[in-house]
Write a structure and sequence with these properties.
By secondary structure, this protein is an alpha+beta fold. It has a single domain, classed as Nuclear Transport Factor 2, Chain: A. The protein is built from five helices and five strands; from the N terminus they run ααααβββββα. The longest helix is centred in the N-terminal third of the chain and has 45 residues.
Length: 208
């Protein structure tokens, strides 16, 4: 369980909320739509877990990659995790960073959600947070243990997209922002992109 929760955890909600746009639907419909986005992700994760070794790493990655692209707003996340450095990146660097970041996300999920031991996801609540929606869920183990896994979502066109994942109170954007800032400070943006690309390749080599 701990291994799986190392996937995506980000910074205080206020950092994200300033980037979000206004909403026009009713609170009930917004909550329902946001929950559907999160549950789409959970359904795919369970499928990957149950497929486990029969799917293999590459099969799990191929299963999860299009789902992640559909439920996460990787462009907004990329802006958040690179912080002030985002504005200094040229268009090609931004596009390349988003691409490799999404590839790494798929590889990380495929690596960590690789077996099924009777776990299940349960959605507990959905609540508005200024111009966003927070969906509160838990992962339940057969022995009764549960781990909180909360999602911050924002409007992306007509859809709700995940912009942050908070596992047991730890924000993925916070962790990545700190880590990436250190790499950029030492090796620049291109160095960070190269490091993430190498990490993606390492997953493939490890599971080949």
């Amino acid at each position: 369980m701990t291994k799986r929760l190392g996937v995506l955890v980000l910074k205080p909600l206020s950092l994200v909320l300033v980037l979000l746009t206004g909403l026009c639907s009713s609170p009930a419909s917004l909550a329902s739509e946001a929950r559907e986005t999160v549950e789409t992700l959970h359904t795919a994760l369970l499928e990957a877990m149950k497929g486990g070794a029969s799917l293999g790493f590459e099969g799990r990655r191929k299963l999860l990659s299009p789902v992640l692209d559909a439920v996460f707003d990787f462009r907004t996340i990329a802006r958040l995790v690179t912080g002030r450095h985002w504005a200094g990146m040229n268009e090609a660097q931004q596009t390349e960073f988003i691409g490799v970041f999404s590839q790494l996300s798929a590889a990380t999920y495929a690596e960590n959600f690789d077996e099924f031991g009777g776990e299940k996801f349960e959605t507990r609540a959905s609540e508005p947070k200024k111009n966003a929606e927070v969906v509160r869920t838990v992962i339940l183990s057969p022995d009764g243990d549960e781990v909180s896994l909360n999602y911050l979502l924002a409007r992306h066109g007509e859809d709700w997209r995940i912009v942050n994942v908070i596992a047991e109170g730890v924000s993925d954007i916070s962790l990545k922002r700190t880590e990436y800032a250190a790499v950029i400070g030492q090796d620049g943006v291109d160095g960070l992109i190269a490091k993430l690309r190498a990490k993606v390749a390492s997953y493939g080599s490890k599971n080949s």
